[in-house]
């Protein structure tokens, strides 16, 4: 389980977290808060992609110097190479992670016909699908999803829910944390809501 | 009618505002070179303007050296295309094109594009100044100059509407001027016109999706193929300065040392300044490569494009100019790396250090 201790995070003009403590007790959690309160920043800090001024992030009571190895994250804050096609981004990720091409994920999200489209030319929903595909490819024990259902069509939301259902089956110490302003679909899948 | 005119004026005012705003943003991007422009280009503005007219004079008066004049005309067109390429988004206000097309008549957009294109094309204005000064008898002696101005206008239009056709056009024209026989100027310019007009019928072959991108090398290659502007303007500037250096060496061999220093300083400047672009790419995609566990390699790789540009430019200079010495080339490579680090860590000092080192080496040489 992920635990945050005494987190302090300030941006130039605003303090986002001050001595913030939080324990994510359930395996599947849905983080809720109003816009701009720091949900995405928290996920980025947990994933080790953004630095805080101080504080500790514990992963199953352990600290990791490179949490990126154990955490997969999908967020709009991660800028994908927009001059590449979706297929090229997926190829690059496959090579970097040393994993096979995610054919099931591509078919599941009905993404095949958009593979040759440049990322910048994809619709918002398809950009989200591309993000989700490369995140699920990593198969990391901790999965963080920032607004995963935003802009997705109904069929893709169903497929996403199926993926989330099975994700932790081979990860006994794993955990899924997501943020969503429309949490109902996730609550029906066994997610537990928690305020920030 | 009055209402229509008023709407047209509203569009014109909007477009002019968008044009000046985009140009201001473009100049703001060059702030790192501010001191450099002030120190080096400031006093040389008059010289550059004179050089522009001197070159145009050679294109007009081409009876004795038709082939050289045609090569010079092509170089002018290439430099003009590079400059217009930089301001093309400002001319067309491409970011808000759909918004404009939604509200105003398409013909108005094209008309205003043409107005702003003329306003931006200092190369064509210089030609027009010469054209106005020519008498009828002189015009009869240089009919190719009309074709040259037509080409300048056509290339401008191609930059903003059919940029990919320019590549085919320049390729065809380069072949024409490199053929082992000489034509007269009118034939050369007619050939250019046919080449550029013909290139409009070539389809846009976009093969970008066929590339396999599975490594950092292919990532950077893809990046520079999609953002070729930063390499093209550097290459054009380097080619122009190298050709000038070759001419200088032929005329004044006693200035060999100074020319050697200036050529190397130019290679360092053009190569290391590419680091500004690469650093922006590093910052933009840092998190993506962190998530893939490739950040360290990505960080190291972002120094390579500018070093490669420096290497290629130096090699070209060594092949064309026999005056470059290996120890100085090696020293300049270290200097290039230093400039790269400055571009990244202390961009405000980048230009100052380049100027100080250039003057220092020039004094020693």
Automatic annotation (TrEMBL), chain A:
Keywords in UniProt for this one?
Answer: ATP-binding, Nucleotide-binding, Transport
| An example molecular function term from Gene Ontology annotations | ATP binding
Please give the Gene3D superfamilies that the UniProt record associates with this protein: P-loop containing nucleotide triphosphate hydrolases
**Which SMART domains is this protein grouped with?**
AAA (SM00382)
Q: Give the top-rank taxon of the lineage listed in the UniProt record for this protein.
A: Bacteria
AAA+ ATPase domain location is 25-191
The answer to whether keyword ATP-binding applies is: yes
Is ATP-binding tagged as a keyword? yes
Q: What is this protein called in UniProt? A: ABC-2 type transport system ATP-binding protein
User: What is the native source organism of this protein?
Assistant: Pseudoalteromonas lipolytica
From TrEMBL, chain B:
Q: Which domain of life is it from?
A: Bacteria
Record organism: Pseudoalteromonas lipolytica
Q: What is this protein called?
A: ABC transporter permease
Q: Name one Pfam family in it.
A: DUF6136
Q: From the record, give the transmembrane residue ranges.
A: 33-56, 68-88, 108-130, 142-160, 166-183, 190-207, 227-249, 261-282, 302-321, 348-364
Q: Which InterPro entries match?
A: DUF6136 (IPR045614)
Which keywords has UniProt assigned to this entry? Membrane, Transmembrane, Transmembrane helix
Q: Does the keyword DNA repair apply?
A: no
